[in-house]
Amino acid sequence: MSIEVRVPTLGESVTEATVATWFKKPGDAVAVDEMLCELETDKVTVEVPSPAAGVMGEIVAAEGETVGVDALLATIAAGEGAAPAPVAAPAPAAAAAPAASGGSVDVMVPTLGESVTEATVSTWFKQVGDSVAQDEMLCELETDKVSVEVPAPAAGVLAEIVAPEGATVEASAKLAVISGAAAGSVAAPAAAAATPAAAASTGKDIANAPSAEKAMAEAGLSADQVTGTGRDGRIMKEDVARAATTAAAPAPAAAAPAPAQAPRAPVAAQDAAREERVRMTRLRQTIAKRLKDAQNTAAILTTFNEVDMTEVMGLRNEYKDLFQKKHGVKLGFMSFFTKACCHALKEVPEVNAEIDGTDIVYKNFVHMGVAAGTPQGLVVPVIRDADSMSFADIEKAIAEKGKRARDGKLSMAEMQGGTFTISNGGVYGSLMSSPILNPPQSGILGMHKIQDRPMVINGEIKIRPMMYLALSYDHRIVDGKGAVTFLVRVKEALEDPRRLLMDL
């Protein structure tokens, strides 16, 4: 019987991958859950295990090909010449013995995302002794950015919780043990342990990821200058980026010890009894650290202006019903501000740039970050290529990202790569503020409350809906002239939206 090997789910918002390496050839014997190939996506590397034991048949997608989710990768002739493991060693055989009689399965920390190395166990949904079904949620982990649910790798009984609630665990750390699992469920560790041994015994050269080879050529690095972290020491794209950063960085001077945080002042006994001490979530700790790092790194300066919202409000009131009927989404103010910012960023590109060492990196695109307050804290989902989107596309993207942010379902990829940010404190009633940069970005626009104020228009005093605008920028890269010009262009586009249509 022929079994198909297909591309697994690659993660939210990831629709395709590149076949980086095949570890097996047609005719090779494979064990269940033995790694067959490695796929490379924009963010992570995914290993594809064998769904059954047998003999490797046809390889449909060769190395270097781009494949979509659920695409056919290869076929396996099940049961024909199947071997229990690629390396017949006493240790794997001994490990497999208890599995045959219903052994135990380790519950490990899943992949947490690029650059995320640890998480905190926030909640266990099961207790020791509880029965669990395969893929049933066991616990929830909290990282710097997102919450990750950990499913049961097999059915059985939760025998031991290794990492209790509140414990900090590293990627691939052991969380718990499930006993009474089926034999097929525990074959993976044995096969995985045997594969590196086979590679080591043959001494076969490991091919680096194609994107890593390209990155090394561009950076002028050789393979011996890069430490590979991929399978069997393969060099991945992120390894090259790390090595390039290390090579470019100057030799660090003797670091001064970080100043210790001042101890908390004594509290009166009658006050202490009425206090409540709550541990900061990892997200809140990360927000605090990043905001303080931004203040310590960038030369943050804020310039202000005010905008008459009469034209935008009139246009919105005139077309909001027709807009919603046609596009299925409400017409808000954020699409106007996003369009106005994209328009201004074309004229003042340094506000959309970032500093990388001694270089300035100009972005010829706009990935707009939209700050959103959630019960867990502040997050900034990114709307990619906002400069090429219509009003309706922007409103739909903002609504969808906002809902996912409130539900705590944003992925790491959805909060990375922003080039400029808009923060709307006006929804909370803020009249004026100085927003803090979101590193490594060089600019952030602060929106505020719309308030009727008397204004002099053509020598007459009239009541107009006014909003204060604030642009915080990194003075290391953006001069005062550029910052003021940017804010004036935003003001002009909002006070006369026809300028957006005419590209003026």
Automatic annotation (TrEMBL):
Acyltransferase: present as a keyword of the record? yes
Instruction: Extract the Gene3D superfamilies matched here.
Output: 2.40.50.100, Chloramphenicol acetyltransferase-like domain, E3-binding domain
Its domain of life reads Bacteria
Q: Which UniProt keywords apply?
A: Acyltransferase, Lipoyl, Transferase, Tricarboxylic acid cycle
A Pfam family in this protein?
E3_binding
Any idea what job this protein has? E2 component of the 2-oxoglutarate dehydrogenase (OGDH) complex which catalyzes the second step in the conversion of 2-oxoglutarate to succinyl-CoA and CO(2).
The similarity annotation says: Belongs to the 2-oxoacid dehydrogenase family.
PANTHER family with a match to the protein in the record: DIHYDROLIPOYLLYSINE-RESIDUE SUCCINYLTRANSFERASE COMPONENT OF 2-OXOGLUTARATE DEHYDROGENASE COMPLEX, MITOCHONDRIAL, DIHYDROLIPOYLLYSINE-RESIDUE SUCCINYLTRANSFERASE COMPONENT OF 2-OXOGLUTARATE DEHYDROGENASE COMPLEX, MITOCHONDRIAL-RELATED
Q: What is this protein called?
A: Dihydrolipoyllysine-residue succinyltransferase component of 2-oxoglutarate dehydrogenase complex
Q: Which gene encodes it?
A: sucB
